[in-house]
Amino acid sequence: MERKRVGVIGGGQLAWMMAQAAQKLGIDLVVQTPRPDDPAVKIAAETILAAVDDAAATVRLANRCNVITFENEFINLEALKPLAERGICFRPSLEALSPLLDKYHQRCYLKEIGLPVPCFVALERDDNAVSCDLKLSFPIVLKSRRHGYDGQGTFIIGDRGELEAIYKRFPDTSWLLEEFIPFERELAIIAARSVAGEVVVYPVVETYQKDRVCHWVIAPADLAPEIELEIERIARHLLEKLQVVGVFGIELFLTQDGKVLVNEIAPRTHNSGHYTLDACEMSQFEMQLRAVTDLSLGSSALKCSGAVMVNLLGYEHSYSNYQEKRDRIAAIPHAYLHWYEKTESRPGRKLGHVTVLLESETATSSSQSVKEQLLEVARKIETLWYGA
Question: For this UniProt entry, what's an example GO CC term (predicted)?
Fold first, then answer.
């Protein structure tokens, strides 16, 4: 039987982490990425070296695979539409991606389909930042409408002077303004939908962000059952409305008065789901490949009492592989370390992650809650990585 070939637009660690699942399913990955040293280049059956928004390169990609999926959302949707009209298969479809790539359009769409979101307004380039009627009180959150990730392009603004300064500093950027949410916790959920309409949701997780970059994820989140059910309903409603095929990451706020608000949608596998590689019956990466190749979806259940995933972020400019630190972290009981083989470290860059599983006997023998035990592990890992 001829092996299936899946094209992936983007060659970072998300594509790289599909490798094990691809091998298991008998799938070859063909990657479109601009840099020959990107992580996924090492595991791809074939690589097309081109920018992710290069539609001509995507034609070459389509000629080498059965279906195309996405590692990131930095694509040129308008340039890809003629390809879809010619019959090239994108999953998720371009129609599903269309309302999500621009953060303002995403907010409008979520509100339109009845999902709870923070109050927001667009700040267009021809507006005057000082005189614009924001209808929001400071502090406010300013987000670039396109191409923001890992905290880049997001600012918490204290007054109009600050807003005007950033507005003038980035003259070519379109902005979304939204109310600042004094949340109790940040949450996330990974959900998948198949070609046949089967929907699978993973456990709701709690995420910890510092400087708008995720530092760790705890699975499962310790939530009241009704809040967990509400978040699952949000995920299912969104995927059904969009008729998604593939995996989505959904980030949310839980307010101090118990309300759930949708923060952002990632139309792809997501950092908040990395724990699934080691803690769940099926990883988000296998789930993605199964969905886009028209296979039935599997189980998203946890196979342990709990898990914590800690991102190993760059904290200096260097070319070190940090082998000694990695060895010490990997020696933690029930730890699974994933190193992305990036050649350069810089502050905030995701170099790898480690997931530690909490076994049932450990969870029940301790006087601490599952969350307390996992937080203790997260702090130990960060001490080993960043130093005391």
Answer: cytosol
